[in-house]
Each structure stands twice: as C-alpha cells, then as structure tokens.
Amino acid sequence: MTRAERIAVAAATVVAIATPALLLGIGREPVPALPAVPALLAARPPAVGSKVYTRDLFGGSAAGASTENETAPEDAPQLAGIVGRIGADAVAMVRTADGRTRTIAVGEGLDGWTLESLAIDAAYFTRGGQKARVPLPAGE
User: Fold this and answer.
1) In sequence order, what DSSP letters do the residues of 111-127 get, joined into one string?
2) pLDDT for 75-106, tens place per residue?
3) Would you call 23 exposed, middle or buried from its count of C-beta atoms within 10 A (0-12, 13-18, 19+)?
4) Angle 6-10-14 (CA atoms, 0-180°, nearest 5)?
5) What are the C-alpha distances in Å from 52 to residues 26, 44, 129?
6) What is the pLDDT of residues 2-17, one digit of tens each?
7) In the chain, which ranges are E strands?
C-alpha cells in the first residue's frame, strides 16, 4: 500500500469516527428542560361524547361509566341482531311477541314501537314520548 493510500484510509477513518460525534452533538451544551405545563391546560373537563371511549367494547359498561337507559321497558322489542352497514343499509333483527324473528329497517314499526336508529351495539326505539335503548344480547 502506498503512502498516499495510507493517508486516505487514515483520513476516512477519522471522518467515520468524527461524523457520528458531530451529528449527535457531543460537546454541545444540553437542551434545557421544557417548562411545566400550566394548571389551566393540565386539567380539562371530559369532552362531550367521552363516554364512548370509556364503555366496554362489546356491550355493557366500563367501571365508572354511566349506565343510563341500560334496561329497556318489558314490552320493547327484543333485539336479536343487526345486519348490514350502519348508516347505509342496516336492519334490526327483532323477536316478536310470538317468538318469531323479523327484520325491520329504520323508520319501520313493530308492536307500537318505531325503530329510530341503529348503533353497532344497540337499537333505539320510540313510542310516543317514550324512548328505549335495546342492547344486543350478550354472547355466551
């Protein structure tokens, strides 16, 4: 190996060792810590609709979550399932009083109850001024 080649290899070695040190900032003064978050920004009231994020994914409710309207009136239709795409073509499968299963779309009625809307885990019915949330039955 010639003298020029040795110098080139030595220079490349120095650059290879020095580059990470320069890029990482060895020898620079440390970055100051961020100031503490003001109390005004640290504690916020829960956002509207935040109950959605605290409830159990597959029905029921998480600890501390509200259980409003969890029990439907006795004469409300019993939900057997939901078929289709919510917000597009979904229908509710409900059990009638005689035990048969029937499908109804949003806006249709059954035994005096009208299906107002569907969610991924429940159906919402109205009759006069009465409202009922009928959840899907729990799996076994």
Assistant:
1) TTEEEEEE-SSEEEEEE
2) 888 999 999 888 788 999 998 878 889 999 99
3) exposed
4) 170
5) 48, 17, 25
6) 999 999 999 999 999 8
7) 78-83, 91-95, 101-105, 109-110, 113-118, 122-127, 130-135
The C-alpha atoms of residue 114 and residue 125 are separated, in whole angstroms, by 5
* Structural domain spans, the chain: 72-135
Quick one: DSSP state of residue 43? Answer: -
Asked if residues 54 and 65 have their Cβ atoms less than 8 Å apart, the reply is yes
Closest CA to 126 of 59, 76, 66: 76
Please give the CATH architecture assigned to the domain spanning 72-135: Roll (2.30)
Token pair for residue 94? 């409900």
Residues 6+ apart with CB under 8 A from 79: 92, 93, 94, 122, 123, 134, 135, 136, 137
Torsion region of 92: left, alpha or beta (phi above 0 gives left; psi -120 to 50 gives alpha) = beta
